[in-house]
Amino acid sequence: MSDGNIRQVLAGRKALVVGVANDQSIASGCAKAFHTVGVELAITWLNERARPYVAKPLAQELEASITGALDVAVPGQLEAIFDRIRTDWGKLDILVHSIAFAPKEDLQGGLLNCSAEGFAKAMDVSCH
Ligand SMILES: NC(=O)c1ccc[n+]([C@@H]2O[C@H](COP(=O)([O-])OP(=O)(O)OC[C@H]3O[C@@H](n4cnc5c(N)ncnc54)[C@H](O)[C@@H]3O)[C@@H](O)[C@H]2O)c1
Question: Which end of the chain has less neighbouring CB within 10 Å, N or C?
Answer without folding.
Answer: N
